[in-house]
Design a protein that fits this description.
By secondary structure, the protein is α+β, with helices and mostly antiparallel strands. The chain has helices spanning 29-46, 56-64, 84-92, 101-108, 110-119, 136-144, 170-178, 219-223, 238-254, 289-296, 301-310, and strands at residues 18-22, 50-54, 70-73, 128-129, 148-152, 162-164, 184-188, 192-200, 203-204, 208-211, 229-231, 260-268, 273-279. Helix 1 crosses helix 11 (301-310).
Length: 313
């Protein structure tokens, strides 16, 4: 499970001309641009021919002109990670990295993905969908108590998420989540450490455990804070880590993810993993987790990028 397969391509020319898709209009735009800059530099070091596109319109024009052979998709969030670009490229018969249309749509939708995980016996927290009327708040607090997390259903990078510790904080948290469209869900907070499993071509990378002085691993902790601590090795005994890697692959498969990605979970004090989400286009910035986990097993950034590009084959 944790052995990387041999590289499929040894000559960069075999990739043809790559469209590197970044940016777009989602709230995760800046993270995508930062990661795209690092990937572009890696392409140059590896001799991979490419053109960078900020958003899909320029990419589609280049495809129509016959200038693009495949796409490395690093456009996070709505439009890039939710199946839209995957479906369009499928119709255009242009290979693209990572998960396809169905898996992208399922993984991006926290409500449907959690329901699927529950149906398959994979532990994930219960949740409530929030209607517009405030009287439903009482039902939520009675069911879950505090603290709880309030989240938009279709966004990553912890954008729009609030940790709520009292009933009077709920309206503001729900209002924030609603700004990002889609459904709003509330779920109980699980006490424990947060872990991340990167996946590349069926190989589960070493677990990363994080510690942050902030209330939770939010956008600031992920991308800007120098106080966030990353532990890889994670400190978990080897046999248990292999079991958690296998469970992460099962969650990845349930949501029809493929190629590469990242699975996030919290390990409670009884050593029970509670799966949070599957990310089908994880971050590739200097703070990002998949490159850190790859480095821990001797896989440098350039080879990681090459292997992600191979998922388009």
């Amino acid at each position: 499970m944790n052995a990387l397969a041999p590289l499929q391509i040894s000559d960069s020319a075999a990739f043809g001309h790559v469209g590197l898709l970044v940016g777009g209009d989602s709230p995760e735009r800046e993270v995508s641009l930062d990661g795209g800059a690092d990937i572009a530099r890696s392409f140059e070091r590896s001799g991979i021919g490419y053109q960078l596109y900020d958003g899909a319109q320029g990419l589609f024009k280049a495809i129509d002109a016959g200038k693009i052979d495949r796409v490395f998709n690093l456009m996070h969030g709505p439009g890039g990670e939710d199946g839209a670009i995957q479906g369009a490229l499928q119709l255009l018969k242009i290979p693209v990295t990572g998960t396809g249309l169905l898996g992208s749509a399922l993984s991006m939708d926290k409500v449907r993905s959690k329901r699927l995980l529950q149906q398959q016996g994979i532990s994930t927290t219960d949740f409530e969908l929030v209607a517009l009327k405030g009287e439903q708040f009482g039902h939520i607090t009675e069911r879950f108590g505090f603290p709880v997390f309030v989240k938009p259903s279709g966004l990553g990078s912890s954008i729009g998420i609030s940790r709520v510790t009292a009933a009077d904080q709920l309206p503001e948290a729900i209002g924030l989540a609603r700004q990002f469209g889609g459904e709003v869900l509330v779920e109980p907070a699980v006490s424990g450490d947060e872990y991340f499993v990167g996946i590349i071509d069926r190989c589960a990378l070493p677990l990363i455990r994080i510690k942050t002085p902030r209330e939770f691993y939010d956008y600031e902790a992920k991308y800007h804070s120098d106080e966030t601590r990353y532990y890889c090795p994670s400190g978990i005994e080897d046999e248990f880590e292999r079991d958690l890697q296998q469970k992460s692959l099962e969650a990845f498969d349930v949501l029809r993810a493929s190629g590469w990605g990242r699975v996030d979970f919290i390990l409670d004090q009884d050593k029970q993993p509670w799966f949070l989400e599957v990310n089908t286009i994880p971050g590739m910035t200097g703070h990002s987790l998949v490159p850190q986990a790859a480095q821990a097993m001797g896989l440098g950034f350039d080879e990681l990028v090459w292997r992600v590009l191979e998922t388009s084959l």
